[in-house]
């Protein structure tokens, strides 16, 4: 199992590297090329079209769970039926989402409603980014065929090729001084060629036994699926809303330009740490879910992972506070200001999210998404309501504090209470270990940060990583991983002696 988890996590780390390049290098270059106001407009349009991802309704995860179960049971006929149903549902999703996007465009004056700094090409960008997102939703169901048939790593690599194509398109657009319309067209072309075309071609080659036919959608067939998938829908749609709605709300409230870009970039830095926690939770959750029994062994594995993620995410939060200003200055060429209080609030959210991920992903992959879905509903309700109240007075700091409050209540309080019933065991030891690990890590990393000698930001960061972050990762790592590493080093040492 450790080998499979390692492969799953390794490919996700590769995905994280590409995401860092996309969101750090590419975004920084776009900010410098278009200016803060131009990039703020692009970010707002990306956010509003990104809300179309709500149309996934959790069906892709549900389909993957069914395929995984059928594959384990050797039920090829069941997998074929699920594929036909998934393709039919995907067509309906695409048609409905396109209609919604066109109706919205017809009814809303984008520049005035979203406080865009320019109206040039806004409608064209909206249409192309909408099509890009709709195709992403339609691709989501069939891409789960990889996970369902034990080809998770292969599927991730295929998806990474699409991400790499987007990066190449962005680099080309920047090099030729292209504007948002050209970049949106490149996004759409990459989704058609790599998102849909490459995935279907590779799936037909790697899973030749599947029969690709489209079942005519019907309520009679959909309702039983929805009965099981409705909580997955909430769980999957809520993070999209949590990511996009604050940006949309800030645009409507007039918090655009440098203030919005500063919030987005600091939130992006915090998001990297959250993404690592999510990726590792997915890598472990997929393997545990294959034989899920709510056993003590499963809970023990989740506890070890949770303790590690709490400690490393706390270190990441401290790192954001210590070095965020230097990173942002290099990232944007000094065009966007850094706000320490925003970093503090978003850093708190890193830890809360990381602690929740192992339990949330494990329950999702065993079709028990209700606890996490309800926690997300509470998080959205509290976070967005508090944001609406705080933004007029406190601006982006109020927005960041409101989001931290929502995460704290939803994932820090509601999820543990509801998950305890599903896991059939006490979660107090899990959360005790996570909280102690997070506090110890934050204390140590902050202490080392205070002791750093005055030097260049890059040297200070290297020293902090060496003497603060790395020791935390070693001490907090699961005992199984430490034993495996110890045995591996012993084998290498013995081989060198024999040679």
What's the helix and strand layout?
Elements: H1 2-50, H2 59-73, H3 76-107, H4 110-113, H5 122-148, H6 152-175, H7 180-206, H8 219-252, H9 257-289, H10 296-332, H11 340-364, H12 370-423, H13 428-451, H14 457-476, H15 479-498
Helix pairs in contact: 1-5, 1-6, 1-8, 1-9, 2-3, 2-5, 3-5, 5-6, 5-7, 6-7, 8-12, 9-10, 9-11, 10-11, 10-13, 10-14, 11-12, 13-14
Question: Topology as H/E string?
Answer: HHHHHHHHHHHHHHH
Q: Strand percentage, roughly?
A: under 5%
User: What ranges have pLDDT less than 50 throughout 5 or more consecutive residues?
Assistant: none
C-alpha termini separation: 31 Å
Q: What's the number of domains? A: 2
Q: Measured on Cα atoms, how large is the radius of gyration?
A: 23 Å
Count the DSSP helices. Answer: 15
Characterize the structure shown.
- With 499 residues, the protein is an all-alpha fold.
- It has two domains: 1-217, no CATH class; 236-484, no CATH class.
- The chain contains 15 helices and no strands.
- It is globular, with a radius of gyration of 23 Å.
- The chain starts with a helix and ends with a helix.
- The relative contact order is 0.10.
- The model has no long low-confidence stretch (mean pLDDT 79).
- InterPro entries: Poly_Biosynth_Transport (IPR050833).
- It is a multi-pass membrane protein.
């Amino acid at each position: 199992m450790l080998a499979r988890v390692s492969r799953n996590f390794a490919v996700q780390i590769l995905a994280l590297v590409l995401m860092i390049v996309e969101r750090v290098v590419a975004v920084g270059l776009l900010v410098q090329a278009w200016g803060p106001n131009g990039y703020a407009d692009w970010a707002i349009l990306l956010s509003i079209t990104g809300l179309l991802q709500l149309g996934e309704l959790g069906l892709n995860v549900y389909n993957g769970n069914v395929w995984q179960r059928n594959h384990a049971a050797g039920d090829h006929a069941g997998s074929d039926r699920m594929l036909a149903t998934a393709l039919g549902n995907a067509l309906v999703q695409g048609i409905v989402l396109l209609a919604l996007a066109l109706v919205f465009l017809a009814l809303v004056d984008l520049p005035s409603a979203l406080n865009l700094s320019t109206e040039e090409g806004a409608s064209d960008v909206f249409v192309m980014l909408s099509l890009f997102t709709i195709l992403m939703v339609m691709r989501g169901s069939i891409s789960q065929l990889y996970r369902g048939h034990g080809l998770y790593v292969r599927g991730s690599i295929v998806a990474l090729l699409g991400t790499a194509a987007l990066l190449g398109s962005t680099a080309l657009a920047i090099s030729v001084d292209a504007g948002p319309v050209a970049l949106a067209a490149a996004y759409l072309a990459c989704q058609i060629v790599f998102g849909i075309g490459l995935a279907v071609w590779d799936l037909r080659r790697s899973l030749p036994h599947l029969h690709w036919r489209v079942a005519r959608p019907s309520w009679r067939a959909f309702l039983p699926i929805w009965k099981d998938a409705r909580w997955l829908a909430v769980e999957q749609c809520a993070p999209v809303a949590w990511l996009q709605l604050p940006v949309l709300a800030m645009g409507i409230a007039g918090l655009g330009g440098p203030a919005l870009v500063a919030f987005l970039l600091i939130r992006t830095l915090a998001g990297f740490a959250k993404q690592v926690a999510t990726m590792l939770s997915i890598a472990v959750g997929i393997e545990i879910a294959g034989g899920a029994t709510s056993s003590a062994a499963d809970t023990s594995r989740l506890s070890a992972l949770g303790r590690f993620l709490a400690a490393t995410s706390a270190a990441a939060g401290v790192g954001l506070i210590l070095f965020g200003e230097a990173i942002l200055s290099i990232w944007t060429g000094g065009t966007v200001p850094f706000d320490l209080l925003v970093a503090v609030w978003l850093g708190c959210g890193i830890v809360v999210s990381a602690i929740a991920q192992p339990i949330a992903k494990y329950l999702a992959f065993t079709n028990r998404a209700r606890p996490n879905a309800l926690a997300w509903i509470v998080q959205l309700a509290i976070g967005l309501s508090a944001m609406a109240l705080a933004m007029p007075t406190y601006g982006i700091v109020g927005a960041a504090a409101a989001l931290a409050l929502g995460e704290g209540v939803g994932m820090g309080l509601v999820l543990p209470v509801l998950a305890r019933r599903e896991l059939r065991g006490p979660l107090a030891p899990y959360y005790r270990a996570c909280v102690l690990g997070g506090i110890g890590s934050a204390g140590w990393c902050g202490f080392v940060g205070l002791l750093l000698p005055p030097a260049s930001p890059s040297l200070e960061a290297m020293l902090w990583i060496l003497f603060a972050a790395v020791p935390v990762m070693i001490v907090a790592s699961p005992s199984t991983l430490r034993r495996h590493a110890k045995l591996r080093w012993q084998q290498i040492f013995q081989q060198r002696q024999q040679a």
